[in-house]
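PROTOCOL LOG
Step 1. Enter all chains and additional molecules of the complex.
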Amino acid sequence: MLSRTADHLYWMARYTERAENLARMLDVNCRMSLLPQGAEVLEQGWIATLTIIGLMDAFRQRYDSVTSSNVIAFMAFDRDNPLSIYSCLRAARENARAVRGTLTSEIWETLNATWLEMREASQRPSTDAEVGNFFEWVKYRSHVARGVIQGTMLCDEAWHFTWLGTYLERADSTARILDVKYHLLLPHGEQAGGAADYYQWSALLHSVSAFEIYRRVYRDLITPRRVAELLVLRDDMPRSLRRCMSQVYAHLQAVRNSQSSETERRAGELQASLHFGRIESVFEMGLHEYLVRFLGQVRGLGDRVSRDFLVSATD
Amino acid sequence: MSATPYDEMHAGDGQVREHYKTFASWLSRIPSERVARKRAEADTLFHRVGITFAVYGEEAGTERLIPFDIVPRIIPAGEWKHLAAGLKQRVRALNAFINDIYHSQEILQAGRIPAEQVLCNGQYRPEMQGIDVPGSIYAHIAGVDVVRAGAGEFYVLEDNLRVPSGVSYMLEDRRMMMRLFPELFALHSVAPVEHYPDLLLENLRSVAPTGVNDPTVVLLTPGAYNSAYFEHAFLAQQMGVELVEGQDLFVDDEFVYMRTTQGPQRVDVIYRRIDDDFLDPLVFRPDSMLGIPGLLAAYRAGHVTVANAIGTGVADDKSIYPYVPEMVRFYLGEEPLLSNVPTYVLRRKQDLAYTLAHLGELVVKEVHGAGGYGMLIGPAASRAELDAFRQRILRSPERYIAQPTLALSACPTFVESGIAPRHIDLRPFVLSGREVTLVPGGLTRVALREGSLVVNSSQGGGTKDTWVLER
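Step 2. Run joint prediction.
Step 3. Record the structure below.
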């Protein structure tokens, strides 16, 4: 298939997934802001989120104070912020539009409708309660998009590139969501504990739809070690790093070409290290250090996918 | 303009013509509510599928639906036979002419066409001189505009040999008609047109560079913002070929490749829907972002076929048009089966004088104009418009030709006041490759405004399904 077509599909999927994960990250912080806590703790939560997305400086240039409403305006509705939910949904739709002929009409109509509703939502002011509904809506539209891709698209090369984009983006996001916790705990260290800490860990689990899964899998108290194990190493957890990487590896194998063997090897190596890894060694290395290295590897894979498949090097 | 144009459905005495009898009796039986419902249904369906076109000069991104009329234009078998033979003859002669012009130029040496008319024409491409193209075919797809003035009296208005469009409407109109009124197709034996994409693909494959057994064909579009993008995407999908933009192709060592996820893939035939000027920034317009640098070199080396060929415009220029009957005689040794509309070439002194004296009776067209832009319809123009146009002609007479206003035939059409005759034309699509073929039918365009002769979709024209009866 045309590299340009694959590129549009890959980014259509990445932007759709990114919008969902942004909604998840913002939602968890909004929930935490409802807990009895000082303004300083709340502010730290937002700073951690902005830092992990890499937009702290851009935010500071636009806003004086780190408040819930400022961060939400910036991350959800700001059309000049290329990483806002608004911009991600627009980019997903523009990528879909460019390859309308390759998509089923259901996929196109779904992404187009999402964008049209997003544009409407951005034009009305929202209260706290409505913001919660908005995040739910973003997640819901992402579920619908995935479902319609799963349910209507021919399982050919185009399909593999779509899922490759989805899982690479999700691996990146889950690692970032987990790393936010590191920034929050920084002053206290791993042993912090206490009620506030419990709520923070459980909010994190909620943000990746893993609270109920945790209860089912461990039937026990929420401990940092197990949360990390669930989100890094469990193969049956749909948003875990291991799950994402085994999907990335499988889809890469399906589209391999004459120059992609090194990319495939690296993906396989990363997938194997997650497959055979133990949470003890992750903590020995330090969770933050581990996640930083993982994010670098995922970014590297993304670059290699672009080079191998999406923009031809032959000119 | 004659007071009573030829009516496709009714004879002079008001009697329904033989080939419309079955349709007319069906129309008289069908309840008007059902017709209204079906017409609304057609609108909804066209919108949902997104069969729209962008209009130049209006607010950016304007998309409009081309009105579809449910009364078909019916052509009896005998008339079509004559028409088809005439079209094939004409396109064969035009291809022979282009081949001659870019090789030995015998027709110029024989003095049948003034050499400067051809060689100083903006559409003549010196880059093509001496280049052999597969099968000596240049105009692989021609959309010839034909009008009828009287019984059996067909005139060719324009030959459209560059990037003719509209075939997707021919196909969609048929699909729509079959969906809305399947019973009509049980009552008539209408010749099918649905195999056009197959014929087109076969035609494109047949002109692949020599030695290529299983050619890769692509359709080159300027992109999603082009007015005919819907048609480009539609044809690519129907033929099962890649729809590419210039940025998807590149030239390496005089071969053309497309960038695919499996690496570069050789491209053998490019069905391009981009004008010559934009095809190769190294040779033509250097600012073109739509083309492929080096394409002309690959083409000249015979490594890729471009359809239609570069430089076909020299044969469908309005200043060359008056000589097409002469081409038929010169190259084929036959008498033309289809007539030209008598044409005054205003670079000639006596033609100019006649035109200025009879401006109110004539249609004046810009030589390089297309799509009905920049033309004057004398009988419909006000005194002020006539005067303004007279000044434009006097400033540069060589830019214009003039023709008598033909009494275009009319076909009954649904309008606000009910059913009334409206003027129509016909654009059949003639394919030239190993052989010359055309599907029985074409795109019928209809001028929806009363008395109007302008059928162009950009000027408020609509379309009709075109039926060629098999018996």
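Step 4. Note key features.
Residues 3-32 of chain A form the longest helix (30 residues).
Residues 186-190 of chain A have pLDDT under 50 and may be disordered.
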